[in-house]
Amino acid sequence: MVKKARIGILGASGYTGAELVRLGLRHPHFELAVLTADRKAGQAMADVFPQFAPFDLPKLVAIEGLDWRSLALDLVFCALPHGTTQLVLKELLDTAPATRVVDLSADFRLDDPAAYETWYGHPHQALSLQSEAVYGLVEIYRKEIKGARLVANPGCYTTTCELPLIPLLKRKAIEPDEIIIDAKSGMTGAGRSAKEAMLFSEVSEGFNAYGIARHRHMAELDQEFSKAAGQDVIATFTPHLVPMNRGILATIYVRLRKDRTARDLRSILAEAYDREPFVHVLPYGDMPQTRHVRGSNMAMIGVAEDRREGAAIIVSVLDNLVKGASGQAIQNANLMLGFPETAGLEQIALFP
Ligand SMILES: NC(=O)C1=CN([C@@H]2O[C@H](COP(=O)(O)OP(=O)(O)OC[C@H]3O[C@@H](n4cnc5c(N)ncnc54)[C@H](OP(=O)(O)O)[C@@H]3O)[C@@H](O)[C@H]2O)C=CC1
Ligand SMILES: CC(=O)N[C@@H](CCC(=O)OP(=O)(O)O)C(=O)O
Q1: Rg (CA), the chain
Q2: 177-190, pLDDT tens digit by residue?
Q3: 73, 129, 148, 156: which one is catalytic?
Q4: Is the same domain home to 46 and 90?
Q5: Is 0.95 exceeded by the ipTM?
Q6: Ligand 2 atom, smallest distance to 220 CA
Q7: How big, in percent rounded to 5, are the helix, strand and coil portions of the chain?
Q8: pLDDT for residue 54
Q9: What residue stretch is flagged as signal peptide (predicted)?
Q10: What separation in Å is there between the alpha carbon of 1 and the centre of ligand 1?
């Protein structure tokens, strides 16, 4: 019998933390040993999220005062706000260097400390960990993730956009300087902490663009697209907030390189993801919807030709809380701990 891994979830009272608990409870090799919260520390998980009432879970505790060494956790999922995360993880890994970490925040995704400072407005406070961290886009960095101690789980928007575009840039099938991404996210992408702009009365029956030309995920897109293309790539990226709970849909406009067709793009993606359990490329011309992936760890991609000659349209969807966050984090943890990559992640989308 495989020994169960002792798992900690920091930020279990948030949306991605609760999603880690939902998936982790059904994981065959996880023992959920520690769950933390900030304002909700001291409460039972079932008091914060009644859906967990039937399950035996540890109480939510504050991070301060935890003795990482004696807890002897095999792996910690960190689902805290960016900024706070780097301080918490520095202390954790200084005290318990053998614990593995999958961080869901943006703190360790950028290779370049100067880029971090530019996009996040303050210098990074755990530089050695930043240089150690491996970017956790499993389908691209599987080998590096396996041996990593600290994995930076990619952002939800970025996962949606990088899965279709990295293989196309690597194969030089599209023009790297003519990428336009129009992305829409459900509201859980903004986290559980109440903000006026997230009230039902202010979000329902309308939708809006935000972060125009300055959303922090652009730094992550620039980094990964440039690596894939072998040259600097700056894509246009505009996020939108739509009145639904879960899901991201990115409509991506690309210009084909000479002698390439939209069908070639679909073939490249189908070949790249042929053996991947969590990326599905649809038949040419078919388009995915967010409801096709809701609650599952699946990303779906559709490709079609544009009416403009030499151009194509790609649509990519995932559930921001699963493949865009907690599901992908568990996929990373499975690789790091030597479990089957799909363990705990085989649920199918909830439809309708
Ligand atoms: N939501 C999403 O779709 C995605 C989120 N992410 C990233 O994952 C991380 C978590 O996001 P999400 O779950 O949405 O956020 P939430 O706002 O829903 O939850 C945040 C969690 O962190 C705890 N927390 C907040 N401040 C502190 C602090 N100073 N010290 C200790 N704990 C604290 C909160 O505790 P309490 O509630 O008790 O105050 C809560 O458990 C963020 O970095 C986010 O950007 C990444 C991909 C997708
Ligand atoms: C809808 C919404 O507000 N989404 C968030 C992205 C959430 C996120 O997960 O950002 P990180 O992965 O970088 O932490 C935003 O646009 O800031």
Answers
A1: 20
A2: 999 999 999 999 99
A3: 156
A4: yes
A5: yes
A6: 13
A7: 35, 20, 45
A8: 98
A9: none
A10: 34
Tell how far the Cα of 80 is from the centroid of ligand 1, in angstroms.
4
| Cβ–Cβ < 8 Å for 192, 80 | no
Q: What is the pTM of this model?
A: 0.98
Q: Are strands 299-305 and 311-318 parallel, antiparallel or unpaired?
A: antiparallel
Q: Both 176 and 126 in a single domain?
A: no
Do 303 and 324 contact (CB within 8 A), yes or no? no
Residue 63: the pLDDT is: 98
Residues 336-346: tens digit of each pLDDT: 999 999 999 99
83 versus 194: the higher-pLDDT residue is: 83
Q: How many structural domains is the chain composed of?
A: 2
92 band by pLDDT with thresholds 50, 70 and 90: very high
Do 194 and 94 share a structural domain? no
Average pLDDT, integer, range 166-179: 98
Q: What is the pLDDT of residue 1?
A: 63
- Same-domain pairing of 119 and 11: yes
pLDDT(167) > 70: yes
User: CA 36 to CA 330: how far, in whole Å?
Assistant: 18
Which atom of ligand 2 is closest in space to residue 157's alpha carbon?
A: 6
Residue 198 has pLDDT above 80, yes or no: yes
E-strand ranges in 154-216 read 180-185, 208-209
Selection from 29, 340, 11, 341 nearest residue 20 by Cα: 11
Q: List pocket residues of ligand 1, CB cut-off 6 Å.
A: 11-17, 37-40, 63, 79-82, 84, 104-105, 155-156, 188-189, 191-193, 320-321, 324-325
Residue 151 covered by a domain: no
Q: How confident is the model at residue 193 (pLDDT cuts 50, 70, 90)?
A: confident
CATH number at residue 232: 3.30.360.10
Residue nearest to atom 12 of ligand 2 (CA): 155
What dihedral angle (degrees, nearest 10) is formed by the CA atoms of 5, 10, 16, 19?
40
Atom of ligand 1 nearest to the CA of 85: 43
Question: E-assigned strands of the chain?
Answer: 5-10, 30-36, 60-61, 75-78, 100-103, 134-135, 150-152, 180-185, 208-209, 236-241, 248-255, 279-281, 299-305, 311-318
Q: Amino acid letter at 178? A: E
Range of the domain at 95: 5-132
